[in-house]
Design goal:
Layout: E1 7-8, E2 13-18, E3 26-30, E4 33-38, H1 49-58, E5 68-71, H2 77-85, E6 91-95, H3 98-107, E7 116-120, H4 123-132, E8 138-143, H5 158-165, E9 168-180, H6 185-197, E10 200-206, H7 207-210, E11 216-223, H8 229-237, H9 240-244, E12 247-250, H10 252-265
Parallel strand pairs: 5-6, 5-8, 6-7, 8-9
Antiparallel strand pairs: 1-2, 2-3, 3-4, 9-11, 10-11, 10-12
Helix pairs in contact: 1-8, 5-6, 6-10
């Protein structure tokens, strides 16, 4: 497999590293941190644990052709995955850095027939634009926004999530990927904002990450309508990678306890 050249910009350094195994995929590495993995020959091949946790939630959502808004592009792993599951789904992807989007689509193109719209812009500004347009028919909004290895603070506030929730169709779901690392308050602030706005919430992560004794990804899922934590747990329990990385679903009283902890820490 050919190795694409390294992309150097004023803001970041990115490279698509070919897998040394047999699956034919690439890892997108930005500033020496693996951000995404993508397999253009098999979009259902999800190698990173946090993406598989999102896939567990996607498997429980109703509907044959959900409209999906992605804030943050990465290697376009999840848009490809959604298209593989639901070819008729309308999808819009918002990415801040045009150089990154051009780089990924040049060397790992999207399927030509996929109804995936690509947009350049800031996630918060795009949400505000969609709110202004009255676009409130998104069945799923995926928030996976990173800049310089951290989650920008302006996409963790109650004001941001208030606007975001107004874009949801009836039964719509928000999924947020948070990274507990250099800024552990980000997850706490995000969870606190979501809990204030939506009545149905669950959290997925490893116990060590949720206890904040190790860095890693936390997935927050929220909706106005009941979620299905049992089905998410079932999906994860039959997925070897999720089992090996200790994925845990937190809801109900345990979520209330977790929320009290993060609110106190935030």
């Amino acid at each position: 497999m050919e190795t694409p050249p390294i992309l150097e910009t004023a803001s970041f350094r990115a490279e698509l590293q070919p897998d040394r195994g047999t699956n034919g995929g690439y890892s997108l590495v930005i500033d020496d941190v693996t951000q995404s993995h993508v397999n253009p020959d098999d979009p259902r091949d999800l190698q990173l644990p946090y993406v598989r946790r999102i896939a567990a939630v996607l498997a429980t959502l109703p509907g044959e052709a959900p409209a999906v808004l992605h804030l943050g592009a990465g290697a376009l792993t999840l848009p490809r995955y959604v298209h593989a599951l639901h070819p008729a789904s309308r999808q819009r992807v918002v990415e801040l850095y045009p150089e990154l989007l051009a780089y990924v689509t040049q060397y790992v193109p999207l399927p030509a027939e996929a109804p995936i719209e690509l947009a350049i812009g800031d996630a918060r500004a795009e949400v505000q634009r969609l709110v202004g347009d009255g676009d409130d028919q998104w069945d799923l909004v995926l928030v996976d926004v990173f800049s310089g290895g951290a989650v920008p603070r302006h996409v963790t506030t109650i004001e941001f999530f208030t606007e975001l929730v107004s874009l949801l169709a009836p039964g719509g779901v928000v999924i947020v990927n948070c990274l507990n690392g250099a800024e552990p308050r980000v997850t706490g602030d995000t969870l606190a904002a979501v809990l204030d706005l939506l009545p149905q919430v669950l959290v997925i992560g490893s116990e060590a990450v949720l206890r904040r004794v190790a860095p890693g990804n936390t997935i927050i899922v929220a909706s106005r309508h009941p979620l299905d934590p049992e089905s998410v747990e079932q999906w994860l329990s039959t997925d070897p990678l999720s089992v090996s990385t200790g994925a845990t679903v937190v809801d109900g009283p345990a979520l209330e306890e977790l929320a009290g902890t993060v609110r106190h820490d935030a």
